[in-house]
Design goal:
Blueprint: H1 3-14, E1 21-23, H2 31-38, E2 45-53, E3 59-65, H3 72-79, E4 83-85, H4 88-95, E5 112-115, E6 125-128, E7 134-138, H5 140-147, E8 150-151
Pfam families: tRNA_edit
Protein name: Prolyl-tRNA editing enzyme YbaK/EbsC (Cys-tRNA(Pro) deacylase)
Domain YbaK/aminoacyl-tRNA synthetase-associated: 27-145
């Protein structure tokens, strides 16, 4: 088991969440691929999108429904600072995950998190479990609690 997957598994267990972690037969680098592997609709996929705060130089996490896109201007307003592209080094350093497997939980460092309200319309959602081949399911309310995420309108 990879270190990233272990961190996600531990974060879920420490929170008392009995999440189903699934190793997929193919990589799940896109929401469409993840939905096909999970057997759900694409909007049940919780995509982790990382931006870099231009003032803070910190990663900011936006978790959006699989079919939605983050609107950079709205995201900057929600975050309270101009956001730019986060490079692979920033993502790896601040979250501990590589692009394509960024989980919403189990980060190396605390990260400000904003959540797409669309995800709350489902009983169960799926997210990356720290690798491009692992996903896990949980209730949207558990996602909000685990990430200390704030519901916000940042899609367009």
């Amino acid at each position: 088991m990879s270190k990233s997957l272990k961190r996600v598994t531990k974060a879920l267990a420490d929170a008392g969440i009995d999440a189903q972690i699934v190793e997929t037969s193919d990589q799940t680098r896109t929401a469409e691929q993840a939905a096909a592997q999970a057997g759900c609709v694409v909007d049940q996929i919780a995509k982790s999108i990382i931006f870099k705060g231009e003032d803070s130089n910190l990663a900011v996490l936006f978790i959006t429904a699989g079919g939605n896109q983050v609107d950079a201007a709205k995201a900057s307003t929600v975050a309270g600072e101009v956001l730019g592209k986060a490079d692979a080094d920033l993502i790896r350093t601040q979250t501990g995950f590589a692009i394509g497997g960024v989980s919403p939980v189990g980060h190396l460092n605390s990260i400000r998190t904003f959540i797409d309200p669309r995800l709350t319309e489902f009983e169960l959602i799926w997210a990356a479990a720290g690798t491009p081949r692992h996903i896990f399911s949980l209730a949207p309310s558990d996602l909000i609690t685990l990430t200390n995420g704030q519901l916000a309108d940042f899609t367009g």
